[in-house]
Amino acid sequence: MADPFADRNALDANPFADPSVQGALSSSNRAYDDYDAKSFDAGDADSGLNTPRGQVPTLDNDAASSSRYQDLQRREAELQARERELQQRAEHIQKHGRNNWPFFMPIIYHDIDAEIPPDSREAMQHIYILWLVLVGTLIVNLVACVFLLIQGSSDGIKDMITGIVYLPVITALSFLLWYRPIYNGFMKEHSLFYYVFFLFAGFHLAFSVYAFLGIPSTGSAGLLNTIQSFASHRLVAAILGVFVTVGFAFQGLGLAWYYKQIWKHNHEQGHTFAQAKAELASHGARAYFTRGSQV
């Protein structure tokens, strides 16, 4: 006959034999094992122990490699953008021809962004604006001289004729003799172009003072002609004369400021008058008309 107290006696002898106690112990062991494994993994992650045996953690090397990779990606993007720009420019030249200036009758190629180095690009853009202001002032000056004649100025006929001559002659000479040389000077960095600019820009600065004064019968509706027009109640000529006076003053002062800056740049680059003479002797007029980098 089975002993009904066998299980009870066994539990008394070994209380851990109780199934509920065994289950609790098993759950506790599993929880401990899980915690220990997680702690070990976290410690590995924090201390670098998850690296292959025998190797030193390479976090710095990885960061440097990542930086180099990003730099290569940036350079590749810049090269691709440059290639697209060159392709678009080549397509434009093929479609419209290389000459692009002036827009209404292209006779030369003129592109400050494409041909002028970044360090000189802003100065060249401002000088171009000054040249455009000069042309605009000459146009307004011609109209003002016409009104001087219409409104009864005693020197109106002389001012109008001279003003008609100024517009095409000063426009063309200023472009060819000082604007284009400094454009080529910034583009090619040859001494000859700088000294041609210094010579003829100096003449233009003197002309700007002369035109600003607006002496009657000289072809300029500048300051003195403007004062006389206000005094004689020639209001249209007077108002136009104000624009002429301000225009000649603005472009003259602006060019004078850049004349000084370009003179400084010329010496910083090591250009000399002797080099300019040597370039003129070697290349002659070809130095002015050739766009290649050798001249």
Automatic annotation (TrEMBL):
<feature type="transmembrane region" description="Helical">
    <location>
        <begin position="161"/>
        <end position="180"/>
    </location>
</feature>
<keyword id="KW-1133">Transmembrane helix</keyword>
<keyword id="KW-0472">Membrane</keyword>
<dbReference type="GO" id="GO:0032588">
    <property type="term" value="C:trans-Golgi network membrane"/>
</dbReference>
<feature type="compositionally biased region" description="Basic and acidic residues">
    <location>
        <begin position="1"/>
        <end position="10"/>
    </location>
</feature>
<dbReference type="Pfam" id="PF04144">
    <property type="entry name" value="SCAMP"/>
</dbReference>
<keyword id="KW-0812">Transmembrane</keyword>
<dbReference type="InterPro" id="IPR007273">
    <property type="entry name" value="SCAMP"/>
</dbReference>
<dbReference type="GO" id="GO:0055038">
    <property type="term" value="C:recycling endosome membrane"/>
</dbReference>
<feature type="compositionally biased region" description="Basic and acidic residues">
    <location>
        <begin position="31"/>
        <end position="41"/>
    </location>
</feature>
<dbReference type="GO" id="GO:0015031">
    <property type="term" value="P:protein transport"/>
</dbReference>
<feature type="region of interest" description="Disordered">
    <location>
        <begin position="1"/>
        <end position="74"/>
    </location>
</feature>
<feature type="transmembrane region" description="Helical">
    <location>
        <begin position="192"/>
        <end position="215"/>
    </location>
</feature>
<protein>
    <submittedName>
        <fullName>Scamp-domain-containing protein</fullName>
    </submittedName>
</protein>
<feature type="transmembrane region" description="Helical">
    <location>
        <begin position="128"/>
        <end position="149"/>
    </location>
</feature>
<feature type="transmembrane region" description="Helical">
    <location>
        <begin position="235"/>
        <end position="259"/>
    </location>
</feature>
